[in-house]
Amino acid sequence: MIDATGADAALLPAIVSNAILPGGLITARNLPDFLTSDPPIETATLTGADIRSLLERAATRFPTYDFRPDGPPSVAAGDSAIDEVQGVSYELDLTRPPGERVIHLSFRGESLAMDRKLAVAVSAPRAARGDPELSSARAGATAILLKDALVARAQRLGHAGAVFERSWTVLPDYVPGVERPLIDRLVRAGALPREEAMRLFPDESARRGELAYWLARAFGWREQRLSGAYSDVPDSLQPWVDGLARHHVLDPATRTSEQFQPFGVVTLATALAWCGSATPGLHEMKDPNALRGILVRHTSLEAVSAADTVTRAQALGMVANARFFSRK
């Protein structure tokens, strides 16, 4: 829509589609499957305040998030009241009350001033819905249909990839994931600070220093005097690493090494070893499959037969399983 009209941004309702692109050559016939309709595209001139107002209205569709275990914020699939604005970036903080949830609204890397005007592409049906921000700002329909705009962009790009990065995100950012109830439990117990949980980047690979910090904090193991055992461990992390060492959690290879490698990616084997050793009732368990089953339950690792590394969300899920493990 932006390419076709030359607009700065595009406003569109959340689109839900089960269409799948086949591998190999993509034809113009494949692409309309992603569209539920083929309306003309209009343009409108909106201020930063208008865009914020539209997004705040959409954000009211989400319940307020308070880390309780009664399910994630949810709305009906394809809810046409959930607007997305591509071309600007922003975050929706669901822990804030309605009307105050849009934060860090920016355009091309700079904070979007409330009086700045942007050309916004919008489908004709969406423009006609009656929003006061759009009713006086519409410039009328163009001769461009949405399907034609999609085909033209595909032709310009020349290829389609499997990765798509949104220009906006919901906070806390781990909410859509399987591990949400486990991470919430850590937050409610004070084992993971609420402010740290807001932006976990849950799908990124966990680092050894992060796992050490999360695990030691979950069990309250923080040493007052720094040992200086590892030259590559920052002072801020050293009390937590020392806590794990004092409680004999670290694996033999780490205990005998001169380097901790805090920025190294966490392997699944390391996460299982540390979490298992930290947990009363698990550290003496001899069956590795049983140990794995306990520590990865209710995480996305349950559905994976083999994995070499763990994500940040998976690591925190394992920490929660270790911290709240009970034989009952």
Search tags:
single chain; about 325 residues; alpha+beta; 5'-nucleotidase,  domain 2; four-stranded mixed sheet; elongated
Description:
- With 328 residues, the protein is an alpha+beta fold.
- The chain folds into two domains: 2-171, 5'-Nucleotidase, C-terminal domain (5'-nucleotidase,  domain 2, Alpha-Beta Complex); 180-323, no CATH class.
- It contains 13 helices and nine strands.
- It has a five-stranded mixed beta sheet. A four-stranded mixed beta sheet has the order 6-5-4-9, with helices on one face.
- The longest helix is centred in the N-terminal third of the chain and has 12 residues, at 48-59.
- The mean pLDDT is 89.
What topology does this entry show?
Layout lengths: L1 H4 L3 E5 L26 E8 H12 L23 E4 L2 E5 L8 E6 L2 E2 L5 E7 H4 L4 H4 L2 E8 H12 L10 E4 L8 H9 L5 H4 L10 H12 L18 H9 L5 H4 L12 H11 L9 H8 L16 H12 L5
Parallel strand pairs: 1-7, 4-9
Antiparallel strand pairs: 1-3, 2-7, 2-8, 4-5, 5-6
Termini separation comes to 56 Å
Tally the helices.
13
Q: Please give the order of strands in the largest beta sheet.
A: 3-1-7-2-8
Radius of gyration from the alpha-carbon trace, in angstroms = 24 Å
**Major beta-sheet overview:** 5 strands, mixed
Short description:
The chain has 328 residues and is α+β, with helices and mostly antiparallel strands. Helix content is 32%, strand content 15%.
